[in-house]
Prior knowledge:
- This is RNA-directed DNA polymerase.
- It holds the Pfam family Integrase_H2C2.
- It is an enzyme of class 2 (transferase).
- By secondary structure, this protein is α/β, with parallel strands linked by helices.
- It folds into two domains: about 100 residues, Endonuclease III, domain 1 (Orthogonal Bundle); about 80 residues, 2-Layer Sandwich (Nucleotidyltransferase, domain 5), CATH 3.30.420.10.
- It contains seven helices and nine strands, in the order H-E-E-E-H-H-E-H-H-E-E-E-H-E-H-E.
- It is rod-shaped and about 90 Å long.
Amino acid sequence: MRFARSYTDYVLKGWPSKKEVDTLCAPYWQNRYEISVQYGLLMRGCRIIIPKSHQAEVLNQIHKGHLGIIKCRARARCSVYWPGISRVIDEKIKSCTACIQESSNRHQPLIPTSFPERPWEVLGLDIFKYKNSWYLLISDYFSRYPQIARLDRLTSAEIINHCKSIFSRHGIPDVVRSDNGSQFDPVKTVEFKDFAKSYGFTHI
Length: 204
């Protein structure tokens, strides 16, 4: 192999000027003082230098298991080297069908809500079941203080009645957050929407 012979000669006998370096070895010239020959292998530090004829095969091994860019780069940094290997790894992963599919299936990160400035400014509403009974949970985002009411019926009217009772004791919030339950969904019922409008709070 011309590349290996030329490179070995340069390492053992000394490097010529940049203009005189073999074209196959020219990309390695700037790192020439880090390169050595060990047991017949060309090394840059502790990394084996891979000739162009084997780079595609080694790249597939680096990407085996469809690791991400950071992990693939880390795998290469401790084992193999050729000029531009980081760029080639990036291109390999960005064009990998399996990696693209996996990336598109990932959930978007949760976006935290801003913290309220005072108690009872923002409330969270949720419905849960415990021992065959349904309950309404109202939680204050500021203090995390909960209010729980047992529901006789899973209807908007039942939930609104409990909200009115709790609001009469603690005040009307600025914002009420709920899940997408049918009791809160303005498409399925306008009761909670009308309740929010009449009491002057924003329902999210």
